[in-house]
Amino acid sequence: MYWEPDKEGMDREELQQLQLEQLQAVLARVYLHVPFYRRKFDELGIDPDEFRTLDDLTALPFTTKEDLRDNYPYGLFAVPLREVVRIHASTAMTTVVGYTRNDIKTWSNLVARVLTAGGVTKDDVVQISYGYSLSTGGFGLHYGAERIGASVIPISTGNTLRQVKIMQDFKTTALVCTPSYALRIADTIHDLGLSLAALSIKYGLFGGEPWSEEMRQEIQNKLGIIATDNYGLSEVIGPGVASECLEQNGLHINEDHFLAEIIDPQTLKPVKPGETGELVITTLTKEAFPVIRFRTRDLTRLMPGTCACGRETIRMARIQGRSDDMLIIRGVNVFPSQVEAVLRELEGAAPPYQIVIDRVRALDDMTVLVAASESEAFDEIKKQHERMKAIKDRLSSALGIAVNVKLVENKSLEQSGGTVTKVIDRRKM
Ligand code: DLL
Question: From the CA of 334, how far away is ligand 1's center (Å)?
Fold first, then answer.
């Protein structure tokens, strides 16, 4: 099923013409309104008016997360703040993104497409178990579900027992959250001894973090639903960039709004068609926060060809990893450098540390092992506790998730090639 049949059902030739026109317009806009892009284009001798074919795209400069950080908070906005009606940000608050009224309309429609493709209609009761916060999951999916006219339950994340009670009492038919949280909810239902017959749930729309086909099967079996994958990122818009239809065979990219390329993260050159590499996205219609060739750091491959659902839009395979060291813990993006920065701030120099991530009953659990100094081994327990607590509090607040901290002997930290392994990720996806 389509939300916007005329747009989602466009044939490729018509689509490419539209993309070119939109690209010309967005290039002209960023050149005029965003000094960062004007400077970059000028340096490379790029004249946005000279842009004639979509193939010229590869001549344009990339935009990176670092560029966003360097222009914190509003440096890359292409409209004055008075036209911005919504602001979202990453948990670390290094990237800030804005939306005009039109952008919110576009975003709601794109998320409505995601939900419709995943089986949701206005007759559904949609439980949104993403956090309603600075990150884009909660509000993004909420607006899309309202746009469809579904009955939306903005329960937000956490309190799993209450999630289950609401699911049962309010007769939820579609669950919207991260895949790991869906599994957590499924396990809780099982622990409570509830029969699936007591629930009305039919569809699950999951995204915001990596998962696998095995995890999909497990969730589908445990909840008795059809589960689809959807992908997005705040720098580009949030959820609504790409999503599976009920064929569950690749995520349809909303190509009338986003131009996708796959590059080799080392050479930065396009990969051969169908090869895996890093996804790069150019926004075609965003007003407040357009991005040109944004390096997502997400690894995937493109799947051309018409889907059995009839859509001709290009699909991308499930995300296969990252080309940087970003971790997603309970749906929150975490960089090891943030941990290091906190340790440096508290301790002067960062002591050897190791991040260990586990999945305990479907919930991510992050522990930072910090090397105790020689003298500390003999210190009073009270002092050690104070140090651990200070690190734990500061880390939890900086990262936006609960973190365990343990002081350990330096030699007990796992090493490889003479250096401490920074991250040990034991999660089974
Ligand atoms: O996670 C937006 C979102 C929310 C998408 C809810 C879908 C559903 P950020 O917090 O900026 O935005 O994190 C974006 O999360 O670059 C990927 O690494 C990862 N990610 C998002 N969706 C998927 C997915 C939101 N379906 C980062 N599969 C992205 C794998 C995903 N990874």
Answer: 12
